[in-house]
């Protein structure tokens, strides 16, 4: 798994250049700038303390471009809480100093060195074990895990106090370390996947070198643990579960992998379970525990990316109207994990920036079904694909097209893709929120585009919805190819509404240059509207009143008919 990108937090415009240099080290990192002080950050925040504490609690690594003392004071109230902590670093505004503060096990020293290298300065490393031995024994490289931290700390302080150590097993990264090695030493660093108990004098490091192959019939985490025990292999060395392709959508397998915290990989079916394990990890020692489970033990940590393929994933996501603040966190996480991004070019650009390893497949807006099929072809190869829509993907956007493509297909590989639809804030809701609550009572959402439905049905629905006194939200109100339809629609609505009916026009809401206008049905003309506009038309109860800061509030009360007494 790629480590979580840090948040780069800055307080003033003077830090932006340094922040951008740090961002070159971590391209997926976002720069958070103090609102009103920083122009051109990726995101803004209003309260430094709450923001930094929020990031810390979420486990997001923090690079703060300010005095170390400010960061320390800000996080102090949280430091007594137990649990894993993210890396926290203070970097001088001008990039002249990089100070790792917290998160030794979150790799803070590694980050400090990476950032310092990017800024061409030296990192202020203060961890004595690391300084003396040139490596942090308690933070082994990727592919290895430490048995237990507390005894590890004791072990390192013993070495610092002058004890000598012997190394058992293969630990290539320790070759360069200046450890006080002695083949006769009582204390040992033992690197291996065996399950024997850890003695008081040893530091145990497990290579993630073991895969368990399972033939699916309800093997839960407990039976995997039992299989490892039977094979005399430590659970900590488990790197992944492997199964045959045809079990890709098996929910028990997925649960089991999740519970064990390891990835799940799929390979072509073999004639028996040992064959499956051998095919997955060539050259490994294979222990067949039962006809349903085999344990493959390799001499080295496994490179998971080389083992078969993962279950493909397809997420249809909604970006919201545009502003990053209005994007749901699940969508942000999905953007970070995607290998492939499909969508109309404007939206793909809006969803970025992407890393170099994320492939963008931009297409014309009209080719929805082709894009949906393309997405399934990629996901069926085991890739993690996102299809991007603006607003909500289920509102006149890609989610329905993707489901239609799946419904029409009888390719089992497409049906075993993990498909998820992630919602977003739709333009009607984003616009309504800015205007007040024009959709506060029953309302009707319509697209005025007759590209995919006959105009006659649009007229009929407009007529009935207006007659039913629903507030109306019009998507796709007008375009160069559909110049007259909006005028006709307004005529139909005007049959059932007074000219004083409030109308809200939101253009590019949540995007640069957004405009919000309140007008009335009587004076609204189609030339005030374009394809980037959301049109909200009130019902008979929708009303307006002046706002203190200018303009007006628009709302539709919760009640209908007689106003309830309260
Ligand atoms: N899935 C999108 C809607 C796609 S249809 C959503 O849920 O918002 C495209 C129409 O949505 C546009 O013609 C316009 O009417 C409206 N729209 C989309 N984004 C908008 C925005 N930021 N501001 C105003 N209207 C927008």
TrEMBL record:
<dbReference type="InterPro" id="IPR021744">
    <property type="entry name" value="CbiG_N"/>
</dbReference>
<dbReference type="GO" id="GO:0032259">
    <property type="term" value="P:methylation"/>
</dbReference>
<keyword id="KW-0808">Transferase</keyword>
<dbReference type="Pfam" id="PF11760">
    <property type="entry name" value="CbiG_N"/>
</dbReference>
<dbReference type="InterPro" id="IPR000878">
    <property type="entry name" value="4pyrrol_Mease"/>
</dbReference>
<keyword id="KW-0489">Methyltransferase</keyword>
<feature type="domain" description="Cobalamin synthesis G N-terminal">
    <location>
        <begin position="51"/>
        <end position="129"/>
    </location>
</feature>
<dbReference type="InterPro" id="IPR006363">
    <property type="entry name" value="Cbl_synth_CobJ/CibH_dom"/>
</dbReference>
<dbReference type="InterPro" id="IPR051810">
    <property type="entry name" value="Precorrin_MeTrfase"/>
</dbReference>
<keyword id="KW-0169">Cobalamin biosynthesis</keyword>
<feature type="domain" description="Tetrapyrrole methylase">
    <location>
        <begin position="314"/>
        <end position="522"/>
    </location>
</feature>
<dbReference type="Pfam" id="PF00590">
    <property type="entry name" value="TP_methylase"/>
</dbReference>
<protein>
    <submittedName>
        <fullName>Precorrin-3B C(17)-methyltransferase</fullName>
        <ecNumber>2.1.1.131</ecNumber>
    </submittedName>
</protein>
<dbReference type="GO" id="GO:0030789">
    <property type="term" value="F:precorrin-3B C17-methyltransferase activity"/>
</dbReference>
């Amino acid at each position: 798994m790629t480590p979580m990108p840090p948040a780069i937090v800055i307080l003033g415009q003077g830090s932006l250049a340094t922040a951008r240099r740090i961002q070159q080290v971590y391209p997926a990192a976002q720069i958070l700038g103090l609102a009103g002080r920083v122009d051109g950050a990726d995101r803004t925040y209003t309260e430094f303390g709450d923001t930094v504490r929020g990031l810390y609690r979420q486990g997001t690594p923090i690079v703060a471009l300010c005095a170390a003392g400010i960061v320390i004071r800000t996080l102090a109230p949280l430091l007594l809480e137990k649990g894993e902590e993210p890396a926290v670093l203070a970097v001088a505004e001008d990039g002249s100093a990089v100070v790792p503060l917290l998160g030794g096990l979150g790799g803070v020293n590694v980050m400090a060195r990476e950032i310092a290298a990017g800024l061409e300065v030296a990192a202020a490393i203060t961890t004595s074990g690391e300084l003396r031995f040139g490596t942090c024994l308690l933070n082994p490289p990727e592919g290895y895990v430490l048995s237990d931290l507390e005894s590890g700390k004791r072990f390192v302080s013993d070495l610092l106090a002058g004890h000598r150590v012997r190394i058992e097993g293969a630990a290539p990264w320790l070759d360069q370390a200046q450890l006080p090695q002695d083949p006769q030493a009582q204390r040992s660093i033992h690197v291996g996947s065996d399950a024997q108990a850890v003695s008081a004098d040893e530091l145990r490091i497990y290579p993630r070198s073991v895969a368990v192959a399972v033939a699916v019939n309800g093997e839960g985490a407990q039976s995997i643990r039992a299989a490892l025990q039977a094979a005399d292999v430590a659970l900590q060395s488990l790197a992944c579960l492997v199964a045959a392709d045809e079990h890709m959508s098996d929910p028990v397998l997925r649960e089991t992998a999740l519970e064990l915290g390891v990835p799940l990989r799929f390979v072509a079916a073999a004639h028996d379970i040992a064959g499956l394990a051998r095919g997955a990890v060539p050259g490994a020692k294979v222990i067949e525990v039962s006809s349903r489970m085999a344990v493959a033990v390799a001499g080295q940590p496994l490179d998971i990316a080389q083992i078969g393929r993962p279950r493909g994933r397809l997420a249809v996501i909604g970006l919201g109207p545009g502003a990053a603040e209005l994007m749901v966190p699940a969508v942000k996480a999905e953007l970070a994990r995607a290998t492939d991004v499909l969508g109309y070019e404007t939206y793909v650009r809006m969803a970025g920036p992407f890393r170099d390893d994320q492939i963008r497949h931009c297409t014309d807006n009209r080719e929805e079904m082709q894009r949906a099929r393309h997405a399934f072809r990629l996901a069926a190869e085991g890739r993690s694909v996102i299809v991007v829509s603006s607003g909500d993907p289920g509102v006149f956007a890609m989610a329905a097209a993707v489901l239609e493509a799946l419904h029409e297909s009888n390719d089992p590989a497409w049906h075993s893709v993990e498909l998820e639809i992630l919602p977003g804030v739709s333009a009607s809701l984003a616009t309504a929120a800015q205007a007040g609550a024009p959709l506060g009572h029953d309302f009707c959402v319509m697209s005025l585009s007759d590209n995919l439905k006959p105009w006659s049905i649009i007229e009929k629905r407009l007529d009935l919805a207006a007659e039913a006194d629903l507030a109306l939200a019009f998507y796709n109100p007008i375009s160069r190819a559909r110049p007259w339809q909006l005028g006709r629609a307004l005529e139909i609505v005007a049959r059932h509404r007074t000219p004083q009916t409030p109308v809200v026009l939101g253009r590019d809401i949540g995007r640069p240059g957004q405009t919000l206008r309140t007008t009335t049905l009587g004076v609204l003309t189609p030339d005030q509207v374009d394809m980037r506009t959301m049109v909200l038309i009130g019902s008979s109860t929708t009303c307006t009143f002046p706002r203190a800061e200018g303009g007006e509030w628009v709302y539709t009360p919760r009640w209908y008919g007689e106003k309830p007494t309260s």
